[in-house]
Design goal:
Elements lengths: L1 H17 L30 E3 L29 E13 L2 E12 L5 E5 L4 E3 L9 E9 L11 E8 L5 E5 L10 E3 L4 E10 L8 E7 L6
Antiparallel strand pairs: 1-5, 2-3, 4-10, 5-10, 6-9, 6-11, 7-8, 7-10
């Protein structure tokens, strides 16, 4: 009987502790105002995205002629493949509407050895959608050379600024935020370059996250 009583007292003590807490409530309400990609008020970071002026000739009205190798041959009948998705900004021009994309997926058929694929796509800031200088930061969130993948002597994604050929890069073998930010002003763009060197056959995936901000501050 004493053992049962002890258990009951313990359970009662637990309940008392659990119900003894006090709560002070606060509230917040808000409204998200979402503009579509065709809205003419999109400027600055809202209208910076991926493009190829070869894929979209009308782009040269508001952006540099970049992204010239988005379907470049590599070896034999193999070609680089770039698939864009998610239109984030539409810019009408006399030659047609220019679409800037949120993301691209790149397939790179190569052989062992050292490869450099220049200007396979671009990131642009249309000249008629200015909203101040925009800074690019990048982070590798999925590295090349994980378990089961080939190892790489070099695996870099380069960013070259069209206006003055300044550059920065990320190492696709390491998850990192170490990146010299590149500024973009309206009408400027970055062309993208892949540099890969390996002696092992196989396939390897990578993922790079890009951040655009009006502040010189790493996200």
């Amino acid at each position: 009987m004493a053992k049962k009583l002890g258990i009951l007292i313990l359970l009662a003590a637990i309940v008392l502790v659990a119900t003894a807490a006090s709560f002070s409530y606060r509230q917040m309400s808000g409204t998200a105002i979402v503009k579509g990609p065709a809205d003419p008020s999109l400027v600055g970071t809202a209208c910076v995205g991926f493009y190829s002026a070869v894929e979209q000739p009308a782009a040269t009205a508001v952006l540099p002629l970049l992204g010239t190798n988005y379907q470049a041959p590599t070896y034999g009948n193999n070609r680089l493949s770039v698939t864009p998705s998610g239109v984030i900004c539409q810019v009408p021009t006399d030659g047609g509407t220019v679409y800037l994309y949120e993301s691209i997926s790149v397939s790179v058929p190569i052989t062992t050895g050292h490869w450099v694929i220049r200007d396979f796509y671009a990131i642009g800031y249309p000249s008629n959608r200015g909203g101040g200088t925009v800074y690019l930061y990048a982070r590798v969130s999925d590295v090349m050379g994980d378990a089961g993948e080939p190892s790489f002597d070099i695996a870099k994604l380069w960013f070259y600024r069209h206006s003055d050929s300044s550059w920065s890069w990320v190492d696709l073998r390491f998850s990192t935020t170490h990146f010299v930010p590149l500024p973009l002003t309206p009408g400027d763009a970055l062309w993208l370059e892949l540099e890969i060197k390996t002696s092992q056959a196989g396939s390897a995936a990578f993922r790079v996250e890009l951040y655009f901000t009006h502040e010189q501050e790493q996200p």
